[in-house]
Amino acid sequence: MSVYINRHSEQHLDDSFDEFKTQHGLDYESELEHRQRSYIFRNNVRYVNTRNRAGLSYKMKINKFADRTVRENLFRFSC
Fold it and tell me: What is the pLDDT along the chain (79 residues), one digit of tens a residue?
């Protein structure tokens, strides 16, 4: 499955990340962590959008874990 990336939506992704942080009360400890979380969020949004365009029998949505990697989420829920 190929990933479609709309290069004109960078501002939309920035705005979505700001809304995500506000909605979930997130404030990162450093600029570095903020950039890392933003990068992860962007990739997760793109993944969700790609899966939803695939015409599957289900739809995915962004949730409170969208700024976390798969590995972080697996660790969080396996303990």
Answer: 455 556 557 889 999 999 999 999 999 999 999 999 999 999 999 999 999 999 999 999 999 999 999 999 888 777 6
CA distance 4 to 47: 9
Directed axis angle between helix 10-23 and helix 31-53, to 10°?
Answer: 110
SS3 letters for 29-60? CCHHHHHHHHHHHHHHHHHHHHHHHCCCCCCC
17: nearest Cα among 4, 5, 6, 26: 26
